[in-house]
Amino acid sequence: MEKQSRRNFFNALLKEASIWFREAGGKRHLPLNKLSTLPEEVVKDIEPVFFKGQRWKIESGYLMIHSGAENGYRPWRKMAETELFIFRHFQQGTAIGAISKEVAGAFNKPDEACFKEVSELFFSLARLRICHPADAEEIAAFFEKQSRESID
C-alpha cells in the first residue's frame, strides 16, 4: 500500500509542477474539477469543446473511455437519450444555456431541469478531461480573480 500512496504523491507533485511551469510561462491553469462552482450566469455562456486526441467514443449508447491500464476502452456509463442529444450539441460549439433550451423544447421538460442536466453532464465530462470551455482564458481569469478576492 505504501508504494501506491508514494506513486500517487509523486504523480500529484508532477502535475502541480507542470501547472506551475505553464503558469510561469504565461499559460493560465483552468481547474476543470472546480467548474461546478461557477455562477449560473457564467456557466450558461460556456461553449463546451472537446480535448484534442479523442480518448473516448460512444458505442451502443455507452460513453466509452480509453483506459491506458487495460489498453482499450471501458464503459463509463449508459447515456440516456437526452444525454446523447446534449453530447451532440456539445460537438456543435453551442453554449450551455442554448443547449438547455434546445433540450427543453425537444423533450418537453422544464428549463431549469434541463439546464441542470446539461451543466452536470458538462462538469462530469470536464472532470474526465473529455471536454472543456472553449474560452478557457476567461474562465481561468474568473477563478484567478475569485482567488485574489478571497485573499484580500
Structural class: alpha+beta
Note the gap between the termini: 41 Å
Portion of residues in beta strands equals: 15-25%
Q: Outline the biggest β-sheet.
A: 3 strands, antiparallel
Mean pLDDT: 81
Q: In which range does the helix fraction lie?
A: 40-55%
Strand order of the largest sheet: 2-3-4
- Note the overall shape: flat
Query: Uncertain spans, ≥5 residues at pLDDT below 50?
Result: 18-25
Number of helical segments with 4 or more residues? 6
Count of domain modules: 2
Number of strands: 5
N-to-C order of helices and strands: HHEEEEHHHEH
**How large, in whole angstroms, is the Cα Rg?**
17 Å
Give an account of the 3D structure:
There is one protein chain. With 152 residues, this protein is of the alpha+beta class. It has 2 domains: 1-30; 31-151, no CATH class. The protein is 55% helix and 15% strand. The chain has 6 helices and 5 strands; from the N terminus they run H-H-E-E-E-E-H-H-H-E-H. It has helices at 2-24, 40-44, 81-90, 96-107, 111-127, 136-151, and strands spanning 48-50, 56-59, 62-67, 72-78, 131-133. Strands 2-3-4 form a 3-stranded antiparallel beta sheet, with no helix packed on it. Strands 1-5 form a two-stranded antiparallel ribbon. A hairpin with a 4-residue loop joins strand 3 (62-67) and strand 4 (72-78). The protein is flat. It starts with a helix and ends with a helix.
